[in-house]
Amino acid sequence: INGTVVYQTKFKAATQVTANSWINFALRNGAGNRYWEMQYLTGGWRFGYYNGSTWAWSGYTVIGNETVEYKTVKIIYNSLVGRAYGYVYDTDGTEHFIGVSSGGDVASGSTYKSWIYGTTNANGIAVDLRADDFMLYSANSSVSENFDSQTDPNAPSGWTLAGDPANGSIQVDSAQYVSSANSMVLAHAATAGQTNLTATKTFTAMDGIVSSEFDVRRSVSTGGDDIALKNSAGNNKTFVRFSGANIQASNSGTMTNIGTYSNIWYHVLTVLDVQRQKYDVYLDGVKVASDFGVHTPDTGSKTVDRFQTNNWNAPGVSFNGWYDNIQ
Predict the structure, then answer these.
(1) Which residues contact 54 (CB under 8 A, 6 or more apart)?
(2) CA distance 255 to 281
C-alpha cells in the first residue's frame, strides 16, 4: 500500500487482564520485524513502535469497561511519512487518542500483516479476548506531495502560485522538512504593508467525506498562515489558521482557538463532510475541533476541488512558512 492504511477491529476482554497477561493489536510489515502495536494491560492502553530491536511506547491511557462493551481499536499509518496513530473508541463513538509514533521506516509499497494476540509471561495464566468486525483498508489520495522528488530552490511543480516574486518567493526548500529531504516554503519579504503569498493545488472535485492532512511550521509568531480546502468558486470550507501564538479553526466563520503555537512542526488533519458542511480537526493526532461548520456554506452543489495555503506578513517583517506531506 502506498499512502494511508487503516487497521481496526472491535474487541472485548472476556476476562480481565492481569499483571501477567496482556492483549495486543498490531500492524506489521511483510517481514514481521517492524510494527506498530496497541496494548491493553492492567495499567490501561498504550501505543508503541518496534524498530527491529527496541520499543518506543506512549504513556498509559485508562478507559474502562473493556470487559463489558466492545471497543473499536484503530491504527492509522501513513507509509509516505512513517507516522502512525493509535485510537480506541467506546460504543457511543467517544474517541480516545492513545499515542503517535514517528519512528516508522516501512517503505511505501510494502505489504502489511495484521495481528491480534494475547500474551502471558507465567504458567497457568489464561487470556480470553473476543474480536469482531475486523478491517484492513487503504485510503486513496488524490493529492500526495512531499516535494522530495523536486529540487531546491525551484518553484514547486503542479502548484498555482500568487504573490511571487512581488511579495517574496515560493519554492522547494531542503533546509526544513518532516520527510526527507524537502518541503515547500513560502518565504515572505519584509514588505511595507501586509501582503500575501499563496500556493494552490487543484484536484478532481469531491463531494463525500474528504480528508486533508499536512505538516506546517512557521519561522516567527507574527503574520499568519491560512490553510483551507476550497470549492471551485474559491470559498473556504475547512479553514485552519496559524496566527501569532494561536492555532485556530473556523466554526461557521467564527475563528476558534484550538491550540497554542510554538516554533515546531505541527501535523494537521481535517475531515470534511462535504454534504453536511461540517468538519473535524486533529492536531498531532488529537481531535481539537468536532463538527465545526464550514467557513463559507454553499446552498447549491457542494464539492471541494482545491487545497490552498496563504500566508500574510506583519508590515515590515519577513518570515517563512513551511509545508510538507500534503495529502
Answers:
(1) none
(2) 13
How much is the pTM? 0.85
CA distances from 162 to 159, 184, 237, 308 (A): 10, 14, 20, 11
What pLDDT digit, counting tens, does each position of 254-263 carry? Answer: 999 999 998 8
Say if residues 83 and 6 touch (Cβ distance below 8 Å): no
- Tally helices (H) and strands (E) across the chain: 0, 24
> b or e along 98-134 (b: 16 or more beta carbons within 10 Å of the residue's beta carbon)?
bbbbebbebeeeeebebeeebeeeeeeeebebeeeee
Q: Which three cell numbers stand for residue 71?
A: 471497543
pLDDT digits (tens, 9 = 90+) for 180-222: 789 999 999 999 989 999 999 999 999 988 999 999 999 877 8
pLDDT 10s digits, 242-254: 998 899 999 999 9
Asked if 215 contacts 302 with a C-beta cutoff of 8 angstroms, the reply is no
Cα separation, 9 vs 30, in Å, equals 20
Tell me the C-alpha distance between 60 and 247, whole Å: 27
Which stretches does DSSP call E strand in 79-208?
Answer: 83-89, 95-101, 112-120, 129-139, 160-162, 168-173, 183-188, 196-206
